[in-house]
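Record type: ASSEMBLY
Status: queued
Input:
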Amino acid sequence: MAEAHPVGFQWVMEAKARGAKVIHVDPRFSRTSALADLYVPLRAGSDIAFLGGVVNYILSNDKCFREYVVVYTNASFIVTEGFRDTEDLDGLFSGYDPETASYDMTTWQYEGMEGTHAAGRRPSGEAREQAAGLQHESGGPPLHGERAQPRSDPTLQHPRCVYQILKRHFARYTPRLVEETCGIPPEQFRQVCEAWTENSGRERTTAVVYAVGWTQHSVGVQYIRTAAVIQLLLGNMGRPGGGIMAMRGHTSIQGSTDIPTLFNLLPGYLPMPSASTHQDLSAYIESIRGDKQKGFWRNADAYTISLLKEYWGDAATADNDYCFDYLPRLTGDHGTYRTAMDMVDGKVYGFFLLGQNPAVGSAHGRLQRLGMANLDWLVVRDLAMIESATFWKDSPEIETGEIVPEQCRTEVFFMPAASHVEKEGTFTQTQRMLQWREKAVEPSGDQRSELWFFYHLGKRLKQRLADSTDERDRPVQDLNWDYEVHGDEPSAESVLRAINGHDLRTGRVLDGYMQLKADGSTSCGCWIYSGVFAGGINQAARRKPRDQQDATALEWGWVWPYNRRILYNRASADPQGRPWSERKRYVWWDEEKGEWTGHDVPDFEKTKPPTYVPPEDAVGVEALRGDDPFVMQADGKGWLYVPNGLQDGPMPTHYEPHESLFRNPFYSQQGNPTRKVYGRPDNPSNPAPPEPNADVFPFVFTTSRLTEHHTAGGMSRWLPYLSELQPEMFVEVSPELARERGLDHLGWAHVVTSRTAIECRVVVTDRLTPLRVQDRLVHQVWLPYHWGTVGLVTGESANDLFGVALDPNVLIQETKVATCDVQPGRRPRGRALLDYVEGYRRRAGITVETGTRLATVGPLVDRAHLEGAHDPEIGPASEEEGER
Amino acid sequence: MTEHSLFGPLEDVAADAGHAEHPPRVGFFTDTSICIGCKACEVACKEWNLVPDDGFTLLGMSYDNTGNLGANTWRHVAFIEQELPLGRRPPPFEGTPTGPSGTGEVAEAVAAGLERVEHRGAELGTEPVEPRPAPVDLGMPSFELPGARTGAEGRQEFRWLMASDVCKHCTHAGCLDVCPTGALFRTEFGTVVVQQDICNGCGYCVSGCPYGVIDRREGDGRAWKCTLCYDRLHDGLEPACAKACPTNSIQFGPLDELREHAQQRVEQLHADGVPEARLYGEDPHDGVGGNGAFFLLLDEPEVYGLPPDPVVPTRDLPRIWRYAGAAALAFVTAAVSVFVEGRKR
Amino acid sequence: MTRRWRLRERASDAGARDRLAAVFTRVRRPGDAGRDRAAGDRHLRAVDGEEDGRQPGRLDRPRGERRGADGSREASMVPRADFRSYYGRPVLKTPVWKDDIAYYFFLGGLSAGSSMLAAGADLTGRPALRRGTRIASLGSLALGSFYLVHDLGRPERFHHMLRVAKPTSPMSVGTWILVGYGPGIGLAAASELMPRRLRATRLGRLLGALARPGNLASAALAPAVASYTAALLSQTAVPAWNEAHEELPFVFTASAAASAGGLGMIVAPLAEAGPARRLAAYGSVVELAASRRMEGRLGLVAEAFATGKAHRYLRLATGLTAAGGLGAMLLARHSRLAAAASGAALLAGSFYERLGILHAGVQSTEDPKYVVEPQRRRIEESGPTRVDG
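Status: finished
Output:
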């Protein structure tokens, strides 16, 4: 955190000064470790084993916050008889379909709720294709069944209750196995377990902070799930000083999923309709909410229809399904990596790049660049001429002859972008807080804001299509596209107002999503943001200094939903509505006033008493009990066990990374059986057990950021004051590895994978240590990934080393762990590089099938997941590709 | 000129410099025990003071690619990797199969590289250290069995020290004393600043500074160093580096207050099991009469590139002139005598 | 003013102070005490250097042997075993002065010595010696001043030296000495250069009249001109120069005497060159003696004089000065040629002496050991420098 988020780290330092204990777990000793009270090195990619060990410690030593767990989590709920755990199936859960490498979740459900409602559920394979897991960020997936209240056993004794299932599932995660898997000595592990549990409960809370590197694994979502399980068991959710904080990699990344730049989402985490199952609006709505489910997602119809009204205004009427058919439909995986491969395959003609530099920042840079080199046109909007705009003349593929500038047919349009100080608008940070930003200076030269770009692009498209009679142009013709403008710059405030939503009858802005109607009388661009303009005031622009208000600082910016600083903060009070402790008093039930009150906006219906028990037939918000704090969840509870929605299992399980040196010590199932792989010649994988020859790439490597640079470098490599601080690409190795490989400090070395080899300077440092894993000594090396071929300082890109293997829930690539070889000296140049890498592939016996056999249990072993029919020979891009 | 104008504790530097009415002396207390090495101070300083970049070269001194203070670097963050314990923290690599530390070899490689460049890299920036001839490939590593390397003889302890260095704004400033043009002057805040419209680049201050802070800028010819953001002080703002420091490792304020805080901080660290915490440059009785910018260090000063016991050259001023006088006298005597003798012949 | 920024500072960084306060009032939790002591002791032992092999006893300077190969925990940041530094980087800045400054030192000294010889020659009726030394004195002064200005980072601003007179700055003092010194010798030399036919004119007579007082005035300041440059070098943080402040002035003045004597032996006929020879003899002897004492007394820093460029220059200087000195004493009386040769040797010797000393200073800043070691020793022997009052 000190490394990638130094400004945020000031608060950690402040907590430390007040006595907080800071623990840092990281494969490499970073600037954060330097200030931590306890540093724990671990093998990259073994986090679930580590956290699972903590879960086991909590459950087997009965360290959980029982009152909290029994009432606020789904620990007591009973799961179907059909459910089989990884313990029973040697690493798989029940419902696995080897054909589609996905799960049918029917048997995972609560008893009595198992998928009677088949209509909405997408085929499991398709759900995986569409990263359905990502569609539940603002609340759990739907539950279907004849009752809102699942069957439960508050004594937690029932063998099929979640608590017992969890206990059995994690019983295997002993300190011994943790050591064998992560390389963490038991003593250090014990210290972590004790610190975490001792610092949780009524009087104390513990927070988990992770940087998004945690998500960049083939089991990334389950990493965070494991942390969530621990935090729920210890009662650290919905309470001050608790929670799980995601340190985003980029300004307003939270905002870019709230109002998504993702293929499978509409604003507010409404899923993008799917061609196969969402023929009409009602089918769509029924599929995204359970017919009997609890909570605010029950009102998904109001959210959806209000969004459609915002999109298409008066054209959207009840008769035409509010223009639901105008929405595009998903037909499969349209994720960024799929798209890159489709570019290579010539299926994509045009491409927009906005503030993103895939040529450096995305996994498998070569694939990205060859893809972009095969487009008709490419629009790049950025602050500087980044590699993704210049790849056609200076990418590494020029040197190898795979791209020939004279013949590269891609027409690149570079649009200089206005920087954050040259435009107004909001940032949404990791606390879900929207903060308004004024324009400080006018954009210089031709630089323009994204808002300007898309507003005028939209206007021109509407002009071009104004007279069209083609049915397919209707969505654009009917599009509601009137925003206030200052000069030719659209007003960001008017856009934010539209996002907040209006009452279409009175024209008044709404005060929150509770006011949204399903009858077309309201419009709202993003239901969770509704309220940011409450009372007609730009709430995001509030800036009352912290010394003029209490610690919650409710009058600084605005947090969705309803300015609640801590989500699910009903859990900060006990079931009776009293604070768990004076020390941790936050939100509580005021008996006299008969309402919820406290330091924060209660994340609960204000006047619903703690004792409230809904009638049997109640659904939706009404069905929420007085002690159901997790109001977005379909059952009002925190989920220790996920009965529906996660592609790779209801509970986290340790799987080895896609590329690993080790056999999974827990089960025969080696890797995530549902991970997305793309078996094709241009996306080779290093072998992992049980495949042979893993040792051809004998080291584990991971990448991360340096404080001095910003991700792919677009915002730092052009600035002298930052570039001089980290001027050159380097690889960090331990002294042990340096001696073993004959690497000299500040000398040259090159790092090799089955994709390519990159060269960089060697930095030998005690900050890296070898680990002992499964009776073998494993070396880990670390690489920053900020450099490319242009800018004040240049260097080879670490992301070129990775292949494409994705987490099935969110289609995020595994770029935080892979295997490699490290050799002294510089890499071969030109064509020789291709032959050199080919040599490695030959030695490792890599074919197109390598790494695509997802299931490694029993009879399923030999099913490879390939793309069409490919000859298994993997070589450098063929001549035709070269001639592009 | 008062008793301790040249040397020794000086109650009121600004007054001694002739500022009748003046604000209290201000300065920095840099608490290196909470520095996270983000270098925000370096960048903020350059941004505010329009200091040019210092060259784009990988120095291999941990994460320090700036090297040292100079005309183009007024804040410099040092990074020191040591095989030493830190406070009560358990050994970071306890129980891992480590071998001997590589710190020594790293330092040797860097020192060897520095020796190859002019002035050992003391001039602005420095040349990138040339790689040694590529060593032979030892082939595939053999995975050893446990016990082959019992962590016993291996490195276990580790700490990473980070420290933001800056001009010390000495009570008795060597640079200021020797400046022949009056370009360097003592401000009403008790700080030491170069007037760039006066400096003629004689370079005397460069050799006058016992800390090696001030330097002459290539291509510009004038001497440059930290001004403690004199312009910002005038507008009631704290210096850019202190403003930018996220963890408050760089603290700005009236010197007396800072000294008080620093004392408490040291005592607290000692209580917390960090006995090696010590203050550097805060003592008004030291060789430079105390620094306007002083530090809390966790190791000997020289480990951070600071002189262990700096003394302002001006201390020796009287003696130096006495010897010079004697030599001059001898010269005269000689010159006269050669002619006197001459008479006899 | 004060209040202003303090108030604003608070506002400009809301909570900075309570943050600060928080740092200082860290709560200690029960159970810490014991571990504190343990850790504390560990460190204290480490500080005392009585640490068993398990614990790195490097909080104190790792004097003596360094156990590298056997995997000991050597924390020294520099390969040399006997002291620690930051990656072997210099602590001090290397002087920015180029060789120009050494040329000036030489020429300034030459000018000073010559003007004194000239004065003597004038008073004792040695016209040839007088004439030669006066002209040489002005010439070397002019050339020296050129190098002096040329070495500035901003030569066009050389006159800024005249803005102030600063007793704490030998360079400032020296500037004013030169200001006083120049005109007199200028007049004297001018009168020597005055063409015969103009001597009769009013101007000529005036110059003739002013020549002696001018020369005397300059001669009076000459010893200062020759010696202040030593003070200038000594009043720096440069170890080789600062620690040599006892001998440096003698080396410089003697070297000036030697060079001037040498010059006199070249310009004056044997009959008139007696004083020059004696001055040269005196100069060379004292110069050699002083520099021997210096290099003997300085200890570690003497290394800076005995290595690299400095060493080469100083060896040349010694040889030439010795030769020139002997020549002046033994041969110069008999042969004009030998006198000229010895004179030239003395001039060269004096020149290299200054170059050598300049480079010794530069070298003593390039290696941190010249800064750290003496200061460490000082601390060990008598504790850190401390002034009471």
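Annotation: The first strand of chain B starts at residue 26 and ends at 31.
Annotation: The beta strands of chain B are 26-31, 75-82, 159-166, 184-186, 192-194, 215-216, 223-224, 250-254, 278-280, 293-297.
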